[in-house]
Structures are given as structure tokens and as C-alpha cells.
Amino acid sequence: MEHAPTIVLFDGRCGLCTRSVQFILKRDRDAHFRFAALESEAATRECARVGAPPPQSTEPDSVIVIAHGRVLQRSDASLAIAARLPFPWPMFAVFRFVPRGLRDWLYGVIARNRYRWFGRHDACMIPTPEQRARFLE
Q1: Number of domains making up the chain
Q2: Cα–Cα distance between 52 and 58 in angstroms, integer?
């Protein structure tokens, strides 16, 4: 049985987010993930498909994962991504035992400082021709 891809919605102008997408692409040999910038029409369309509000109106500082009809944000989204990557990344599941409030607080510290620490791009990343099929738009 073929599984629907996991959709990762990310801040296309964030240096950390762009590097994270590159990190995932390099390790996701089975192409589990598809990507779209939070700012894109594809992100709005995917959120509407699962009955979630548009990403720009809810958590613009959060990665959003859509998998199996569910929407995950913040630390839950990050842990869901790690779970689909090859070893050793699924081992990060141990952090599910840390209370979500604490995980999301740490996520928030990084999210609030991501432009200062990792830079901000004037435009969204442009995938290579090999990567293009993995992007929704």
C-alpha cells in the first residue's frame, strides 16, 4: 500500500528553514517528503485540504507538517520529520517524553531568533532540477 507523502511547510526566507529542507532532501532517499513555502499558494491549498487555517494566519514562525490528514506544528512537526528520516534521526523520538510545553518553549526561542542567527533571504529557495519534483509549487 502506497502512503501519501508527508508535506513540510517551511518559511522559505529563513536560512535555518532552507538549510533544514536541504538536510531532509539529502537524507530522504525514499522521497517521503514534499515541500512548500509557508508563503505559497500550495501551502494554503494543503492546509485547506485538511481543514486547517492558512499557515500565514496561524504560526508563521513554525514548520508545519501535514501527514495522514493531521497537522503538526512546532516541536511535534520537527519530531515527525526526524521519525521519517533514516537512522539515527528517529532516535529523537525520545524527546516526545519531554512535556510539549517545554519542547515548544525551546522551539520558540529558536524560532524567534532564527533570522538573527541563521539569516534571512530576500526570496524563497529555488530547488535544483533534481529536487523540483519534491516541491508542490
Answers
A1: 1
A2: 9
Give first-to-last CA distance, the chain, whole Å.
26
User: Is residue 117, in this structure, part of any structural domain at all?
Assistant: yes
* Residues paired with 75 in a beta bridge: none
What are the start-end ranges of the H helices in 1-137?
Answer: 15-27, 41-49, 55-58, 74-84, 100-118
State the residue range of the domain holding 94.
6-131
Task: Report the DSSP beta bridge partners of residue 64.
Answer: 9, 73
Domain annotation covers residue 106: yes
| 57 occurs within a structural domain | yes
CB-based contact 127:102 (threshold 8 Å): no
Domain-located, residue 42: yes
Coil, helix or strand for 36? Answer: strand
pLDDT tens for the chain, residues 1 to 137: 456 789 999 887 777 888 889 899 999 988 899 999 888 888 888 888 888 877 765 555 678 899 988 999 889 999 999 999 999 989 998 999 999 999 999 988 888 888 778 777 666 666 677 777 888 87
Distance CA 52, CA 44 (A): 9
